[in-house]
Amino acid sequence: MIIDPRAKRRKTSHHIMMAVFIGLLFGGSLAAAQIFSTEWIREKLAEHEAAALMGQRVLLQAQSPQLIFKSTSIGVREGSDLHTALMAEQDQLLNSFQNRAEKHLKDQAGPPVTVHIQYSVEARSGPLISLLRTETTGRPNTDPKARYFSTLIDNKNQDVLDLSDLFKASRGTRSALDKLLCQAIMNEKARRGAPMSIEGPEDDCDVDPIVSFLDDAPFTFTSTRDGKFFSGIRFYFHAGRIGAGEQGEFIITIPQTAFRDYLVEHHRTRFTSVPVNN
Question: What are the structural domains, with CATH classification, of the chain?
Answer without folding.
Answer: 3-161 (3.30.565.40), 166-268 (3.90.640)
